[in-house]
Amino acid sequence: MSRTAIVTGGGKRVGEALVRALIDDAWTVVAHVHRTDDAVPEGAVKSVADLAEADCAGRIFAAADGLPPVRLLVNNAARFAFDGFGNASAEEFDSHMKVNARAPMLLIDELARRHAGGEALAVNLLDSKLAAPNPDFLSYTLSKYALAGLTEVAARALAGQGIRVNAIAPALMLPSGEQDRANFAAVHELNPLRRGVEIGDVVAALRFLIDSASMTGQTLVLDGGQHFMNLKRDVQFLEGLNER
Fold first, then answer.
1. Nearest one of 242, 110, 106, 92 to 172, comparing CA atoms
2. How many Å apart are CA 73 and CA 150, to the nearest integer?
3. Which of 2, 41, 157, 207 has the largest count of CB atoms under 10 Å?
């Protein structure tokens, strides 16, 4: 069956792994990147767009013109920068919202506008911290709440068109922001299962959602039970808690 997937942030980290997995599963894949010189996995079609720009959805979907129908959209790309109460930033709030919430909204809307029947799926990458929030990375966190709301609203609105909308909310998988590798190693397994979440877990979750034709409006939380711990800060600031 010929079908196309679009993955934002498809040139590195989790996005790159998702693109490679989808290519292995015989999808035609459009891998979105931010800059023209950003590389994408071999076999993918590259699309370049700034997700902070209002025309990003049209530019990304234009790369799928002439390809098989778009049946999968993965909103993976995200802005991640620190702010918090006491140094909250209007600029960071706006920047996070544009990339992490507005762009996915526009992309899902573009998927719906171009949808010509049959089934399709949009998957939004959230963050497991929404299950037990803390105030670190304030604008980022609020933007992910907005994306979670978009997941449910879009699922409700688009089910009649045969478009499912779900989300995956993983915990820490790779060093993020200014986190160094030593700190990452110390907190990666900070959860009741004592098992760090891996990129392969997200790949498996995406494949599960693709195959789960009756599932929409749902979020798969991949955190080893970390939300049971009700952590008061982001994990990178809690290194000592991982001691047995």
1. 242
2. 14
3. 41
pTM (2 d.p.): 0.94
Catalytic residue check, 145: no
**Contact in structure between 89 and 140 (CB atoms under 8 Å):** no
Going by C-alpha positions, the residue among 17, 73, 64 that lies closest to residue 40 is 17
Residue of 12, 46, 144, 232 with catalytic role = 144
| CA 204, chain centre distance (Å) | 14
Q: SS3 breakdown of the chain: % helix, strand, coil, rounded to 5?
A: 40, 15, 40
In what helix (H) or strand (E) does residue 28 lie, and over which residues does it extend? strand 28-33
Amino acid at the residue 141: T
Per-residue pLDDT tens for 64-95?
999 999 999 999 999 999 999 999 999 999 99
Q: What's 49-98 look like in SS3?
A: CCCCCCCHHHHHHHCCCCCCCEEEEEECCCCCCCCCCCCCCHHHHHHHHH
Q: Which two tokens stand for residue 172?
A: 């820490």
Cβ proximity of 4 and 30 under 8 Å: yes
